[in-house]
Design a protein that fits this description.
The chain is of the alpha/beta class. The protein is built from 17 helices and 16 strands. The protein folds into four domains: about 290 residues, Alpha-Beta Barrel (TIM Barrel), CATH 3.20.20.70; about 30 residues, no CATH class; about 60 residues; about 110 residues, 2-Layer Sandwich (Double Stranded RNA Binding Domain), CATH 3.30.160. It has an eight-stranded parallel barrel with strand order 3-4-5-6-7-8-9-10, surrounded by eight helices. A three-stranded antiparallel β-sheet has the order 11-12-13, with helices on one face.
């Protein structure tokens, strides 16, 4: 069977047409493997709910055997999500597969995703297994998974550097053993589009039972070709694409969900395939993942970057004002970047604020989160002349991240300047107890962090301190990212405020809260001033 006459009757348990591409999101698994990108349980559930609302077909929720935390996250996501499949990753080991099924068994549409490397390099040096042993492991692992779960995906790790004869043999055997999805990963981002398309076409030509499975792509971005390679795979007949929000992932990341989806949508004339994604939810999803992980989206990032729909050149501006299609191949509204219809300022009321939140995609916030965000909005409006949508988004996301914090920011007073000493007077609420202290430091930020450390002693080391202006102008809100590392585990904290120093304190406290949860210990005993 050739790629050109391949049709797909079923993807992820949903009846679909042959030109429907399933979107397999692995933000919670591969995306979380980015250094410093780990998420706690509540954050994973928020991302999973957003992915379900976005319309992805499969959510890869994690690697259940990796840790008890990963197992619980997969189990909770599996029990929560109803409208799409939930996958758990497993190596070709019986314990991995059994653990994955234990986490997934409560899902409406569970999928076990098992894998083993098939390239000569990986088999010899990493696995230290012969090709025959690897082939048998494929048969055994897929068969075991299929006996537990109706939906099994098998991946040939480092598939793009595998011997073609061996690859065809293992793919055929995986399908015979019960795999209904065959994923071909470009694990190290090595291939190029023409080569990858030829590889997919070769599988269609040479694997006799290929019509019994959906072919999937999983491309990494080491050469900046993840999206291009994935599109080439789709052109050759692949009908599932594995990707992440904002292209998160190990090393240079994965194929970016927003880019693959909008490429298929915008160039439907050339690519002739569709997805089930609600594209108007893309920008809110991107911002949520960026806020939770602390990975800022670069301004010139396609689709969701701050400059994606910005025009500064006079020639561009003139053409755009005459007809937006002269310089925009898609509209901001199509990806959820809506133009402002409500002018927000210090005289705006709670009702207008709620309406603005709905317009920005925050229709399901609880009263406490709304009240906290509104209070901080009014404070900001007293200080800042122009309130932009981005300001409100930053406030709301910052408020949402604080919902279950055990350490809470109350107040901060800082003395800074060239004469010194720089001091910080900080007040926190720790497990319901109000504590405060006054400390000195080598600069105002150092003084603030010293104060936090004094009130909540910990062993975390500061790995990253980054300040980002939410909007333009000298009165812009500051969004600060802090990364703490303890015993080899890293967490990111985010904070937003009109005052950069307050934002810095919020970010450090947010990271410390995540570190406390991650290590499974209580908050260190507070020391009152």
């Amino acid at each position: 069977m050739t790629a050109s006459n391949k049709t797909t009757d079923q993807i992820a348990g949903n009846q679909v047409a042959g030109d429907r591409v399933a979107i397999f999101d692995t933000t919670l698994r591969d995306g979380e493997q980015s250094p410093g990108c780990s998420m706690n349980l509540d954050e994973k559930l928020r991302v999973a709910a957003t992915l379900e609302e976005l319309g992805v077909d499969i959510i890869e929720a994690g690697f259940p055997i990796a840790s008890n935390g990963d197992f619980e996250a997969v189990r909770r996501v599996a029990n929560m999500v109803k409208s799409c499949s939930v996958a758990g990753l497993a190596r070709a080991h019986p314990k991995d597969i059994d653990r994955s099924w234990e986490a997934l068994r409560g899902a409406a549409r569970p999928r076990i995703h098992t894998f083993i490397a098939t390239s000569p390099l990986h088999m010899k040096y990493k696995l230290q297994m012969t090709p025959e042993d690897v082939h048998q492991a494929v048969v055994d692992s897929v068969g075991r998974a299929r006996n537990l779960c109706d939906d099994v995906e098998w991946s040939c790790e480092d598939g793009t550097r595998s011997d073609h004869d061996f690859l065809c043999r293992t793919v055929e055997s995986a399908i015979k053993a019960g795999a209904s999805t065959i994923n071909v990963p470009d694990t190290v981002g090595y291939t190029v589009p023409t080569e990858f398309a030829a590889l997919i076409a070769m599988l269609y030509e040479r694997v006799p039972n290929i019509d019994q499975a959906v072919i999937s792509t999983h491309c990494h971005n080491d050469l900046g070709l993840a999206v291009a390679n994935s599109l080439a795979g789709v052109g050759a007949g692949a009908r599932q694409v594995e990707c992440t929000i904002n292209g998160l992932g190990e090393r240079a990341g994965n194929c970016a969900l927003e880019e693959i989806v909008m490429a298929l949508r915008t160039r439907a004339d050339a690519l002739t395939c569709t997805t089930g994604i609600d594209t108007t939810k893309i920008a809110p999803a991107s911002h949520l993942v960026s806020t939770i992980t602390g990975f800022q989206v670069q301004p010139n990032k396609a689709i969701v970057g701050a400059n994606a729909f910005a025009h500064e050149s006079g020639i561009h501006q003139d053409g755009f004002l005459k007809n937006s299609e002269t310089y925009e191949i898609m509209t901001p509204e199509s990806v959820g970047l809506k133009a402002s219809t409500l002018v927000m300022g210090k005289h705006s009321g709670r009702h207008a604020f709620r309406e603005k939140l709905k317009e920005l995609g925050y229709s399901d916030l609880g009263d406490n989160a709304i009240n906290d965000a509104f209070s901080r909005f009014k404070d900001l409006a007293d200080k800042k002349k122009d309130i932009f949508d981005e300001d409100i988004v930053a406030l709301v996301d910052d408020a949402a991240l604080r919902g279950n914090d055990r350490i809470k920011f109350l107040s901060l007073q800082v003395i800074a300047g060239s004469k010194g000493p720089q001091t910080a007077e900080l007040e926190l609420e720790v497990e319901g107890l109000i504590v405060k202290t006054k400390t000195e430091g080598n600069g105002p930020v150092d003084a603030i962090f010293n104060a936090i450390h004094e009130l909540c002693p910990h062993d975390g080391q500061l790995q990253l301190y980054q300040v980002h202006a939410v909007t333009e102008g000298t009165d812009a809100q500051a969004e600060v990212t802090v990364r703490l590392s303890e015993n080899g585990k890293s967490v990111n904290g985010m904070g937003a405020d009109a005052d950069t120093l307050v934002s810095s304190a919020r970010a450090y406290i947010h990271a410390l809260n995540k570190l406390v949860v991650k290590r499974g210990k209580g908050v260190p005993e507070a020391i009152s001033a």
